[in-house]
Design goal:
single chain, alpha+beta, Trna Endonuclease, Chain: A, domain 1, five-stranded mixed beta sheet, about 30% helix
């Protein structure tokens, strides 16, 4: 499974949990957000990571503080167009296993 397939798999997983897709692969100078979804009234910025092996800490360890900072900046850029800022959170979808279909969903994975 490649990166875009992993993002589609994560999107499908989250849709099955009643989240609604707002934007896929939001890009700005600050960085990229894989998925922007809505969970009720909550705006959810989703980082999708896939690792076939748990070596080097697995998928979770790949979301470094540098990556988190880029995601926060990109989210701020996205939110700049809103008149009123909705409640937000950052989730991580971690895919693992030889086929990449073992899913771990971490709500509120990080934030400011």
């Amino acid at each position: 499974m490649n990166g875009s397939e992993a993002e589609r798999y994560a999107e499908t997983f989250l849709r099955h949990h009643n989240l609604v897709l707002l934007r896929r692969n939001y890009r700005c100078r600050s960085g990229e957000i894989d998925l922007i979804m809505r969970d009720g009234t909550m705006l959810v910025f989703v980082e999708v990571r896939m690792r076939k092996s748990p070596a080097f800490g697995g998928a979770a360890a790949s979301i470094t503080w540098v990556k988190q900072r880029k995601l926060l900046r990109a989210a701020r850029h996205y939110l700049a167009s809103f008149k009123f800022e909705p409640p937000c959170r950052f989730d991580a979808i971690l895919l693992s296993g030889h086929d990449g279909k073992e899913v771990e969903w971490i709500k509120n994975a990080f934030g400011e």
